Amino acid sequence: MFKLFFTHINQKVSLTAAEQNEVKTYFTPKKLRRKQYLLQEGEVCRYLAFVEKGVLRSYNVDAKGGEHMIHFALEGWWMADTYSFLSGEPSNYNIDAIEDAELLMITLEGFEQMMVQVPRMERYFRILFQNNIISKERRLISSISYSAEEKYIRLAESNPQLMQRIPLHLIASYLGITPETLSRIRKHLSQKK
Amino acid sequence: MFKLFFTHINQKVSLTAAEQNEVKTYFTPKKLRRKQYLLQEGEVCRYLAFVEKGVLRSYNVDAKGGEHMIHFALEGWWMADTYSFLSGEPSNYNIDAIEDAELLMITLEGFEQMMVQVPRMERYFRILFQNNIISKERRLISSISYSAEEKYIRLAESNPQLMQRIPLHLIASYLGITPETLSRIRKHLSQKK
DNA sequence: CGCGGGTTTGATGATGCTCAAGCCCGGTGG
DNA sequence: CCACCGGGCTTGAGCATCATCAAACCCGCG
């Protein structure tokens, strides 16, 4: 169950066997069925989840009922509404499973304890948060700087893994365009080659 | 010089007189003229700066020479390329002054020492980073979810201070629209009332 | 007074959205 | 085993939004 988990962590900071055993104690496994919620708008996000298997998405819903993708998480990624998780305020987002998923979850209390007990994990999460800020900034720049086609190309190049796993209408929402436009862009690109 | 500085910090965490004196020692004042750079693309961002007076902006420049605003900082705000500052990697951004400015700057070494010596400042920056993530997410959602007019209205409502200080063509760039479009939007809104 | 940066205005065209229909494919029930 | 259904993707026509290009305007400053 923790195989992928430690593989990923050890890529960034290496933990001793003893530390790994300590870390394990903070996490609870959970399975999630396709379409099942991990978090619904209005609730406080109680868990930070590592995806061992499957795919999650987070999104918010606007006044007209439109869904806007915030984030996807494939195997080896983390998922939560970071803000709600850390602050304890109710979330504006929904999180659910795009495919059946297996998670490892930790609460805020566990998280804070773990930081103290296993300082290398604090380092790991610092790196993670930094990367999170960077990728959000990239996406923001992309979304204010480029045309729909350019945005799609940039995403496909920087995140080819997403293209193989995420339905296209969700990719469209992630890019802030309609599924129809995305379909035409893909047609256009395939004709070029 | 440190008046606004401590007013702002004490709003989030209150420091004793002794702590304030300790904190002061880590910062260096600096004046920046209008149009003068604090950071240029390719350099490492060596300083995190608190704005005591004036206005800064950070932006990146695309292949066609277009500027895209990342962030503004009025009095009481912080400015840096957080990623470059923390990681030591060269920045893709430029930072310069929109108006003559007075700054209080700290290096990464100073920053890290300060965290250890004055734990309350660590707490302060945790809050700051959290807020940063939240506002970036808001902006992202805004930019993928709304029309140009809606984006402008949302910005004007959430950040009225910016409207009074930042030239409109920079606001337009921040929103990812052209100055002409922004001008027409404003005309349209003023006619409504 | 003249210059220059910033903002406005107008005309035109491209980009992307909306609405509506059709297609493809996997899953379900008869 | 086939017929049907539904979800996701595609296609097309028409329209709204926004960008582009060009020109005029406004105002503070040298």
What does this structure look like?
Chain A has 193 residues and is an alpha+beta fold. Chain A has a domain at 3-117: Jelly Rolls. Chain A is built from nine helices and six strands, in the order ααβββββαβαααααα. The first copy, chain A, has helices at residues 3-12, 17-24, 82-87, 108-117, 119-145, 148-158, 160-165, 168-175, 179-192; strands spanning 28-32, 37-39, 47-61, 67-73, 78-79, 94-107. In chain A, strands 1, 2, 3, 4, 5 and 6 form a six-stranded antiparallel β-sheet that branches. The radius of gyration of chain A is 18 Å and the shape is globular. The A-B interface holds A 60, 62, 66, 68, 70, 82-83, 86-87, 129-130, 132-134, 136-137, 139-141, 143-145, 173-176 and B 60, 62, 66, 68, 70, 82-83, 86-87, 129-130, 132-134, 136-137, 139-141, 143-145, 173-176. The first copy, chain A, binds a DNA duplex (30 and 30 nucleotides) through residues 147-149, 167-169, 177-184, 186-187.
Short characterization:
Two copies of one chain form a homodimer. Chain A is built from nine helices and six strands; from the N terminus they run H-H-E-E-E-E-E-H-E-H-H-H-H-H-H.
